[in-house]
Amino acid sequence: MSSLTLEVNGQATRLQVDSHRLLVEVLREQLGLTGTHVGCDTSQCGACTVLLDGAPVRSCTLLAVQAEGRKVTTIEGLGGIGAERHPIQQAFIDCHGLQCGFCTPGMIMSTAALLQHTPNPSQEQIEHALEGNLCRCTGYVNIVAAVKQAAATLAQGTKP
Ligand code: FES
Ligand code: FES
């Protein structure tokens, strides 16, 4: 067992983890943050995407101990714990950017990362940012529309 200290959704967190445990396993099973999904478990689908120091990573590919001292943001923390729905989440609802919802947390976290550094992305930039996130339901058109709506909402300063 290793001692792991990190920040998860803005909260300092310290716990004991097996050194071979994946970040997604620790998030889901030890911290109860089950919004981060496991689709393929082999770095293919993006369902497990979280932000590590603001950058999107596949948490099924990262050992939990690699997050030592770093900031992890999951879908639960996107709008702030206990806060209202984040504009990206609202946009996915408004634009019907989800059906079964399994891919959605990963899609939203990848979108959050994109809009941090590219607040007004082109169609091509959106497609590129989401190319590592697979969806077997929607056909992607509504997902791209959701990203565009989220960008527009955030640009109006509705929410930082
Ligand atoms: Fe991590 Fe599919 S579960 S990429
Ligand atoms: Fe079902 Fe994307 S909404 S996999």
Short recap of the structure:
32% of the residues lie in helices and 16% in strands. It has helices at residues 23-30, 87-94, 104-117, 123-129, 141-155; strands at 2-8, 11-17, 49-52, 55-58, 71-73.
CATH arch. level architecture of the largest domain: Roll
Topology pattern, helix = H, strand = E: EEHEEEHHHH
Please write the CATH class name of the largest domain. Alpha Beta
Largest β sheet strand count, sense and barrel closure: 5 strands, mixed
Enumerate the distinct ligands: FE2/S2 (inorganic) cluster
Low-pLDDT parts are: none
Protein architecture, described:
This protein has helices at residues 23-30, 87-94, 104-117, 123-129, 141-155, and strands at residues 2-8, 11-17, 49-52, 55-58, 71-73. With 160 residues, it is of the alpha+beta class. Strands 2-1-5-3-4 form a five-stranded mixed beta sheet, covered by helices on one side. α2 (87-94) packs across α5. The relative contact order is 0.16. The mean pLDDT is 94. Bound molecules: FE2/S2 (inorganic) cluster (2 copies). One FE2/S2 (inorganic) cluster (FES) is lined by residues 38-41, 43-48, 58, 60.
Give the topology.
Elements: E1 2-8, E2 11-17, H1 23-30, E3 49-52, E4 55-58, E5 71-73, H2 87-94, H3 104-117, H4 123-129, H5 141-155
Parallel strand pairs: 1-5
Antiparallel strand pairs: 1-2, 3-4, 3-5
The structure holds FE2/S2 (inorganic) cluster (2 copies).
Which key terms come to mind for this protein?
5-stranded mixed beta sheet; 2 domains; alpha+beta; binds FE2/S2 (inorganic) cluster; 160 residues; DNA polymerase, domain 1; 5 helices
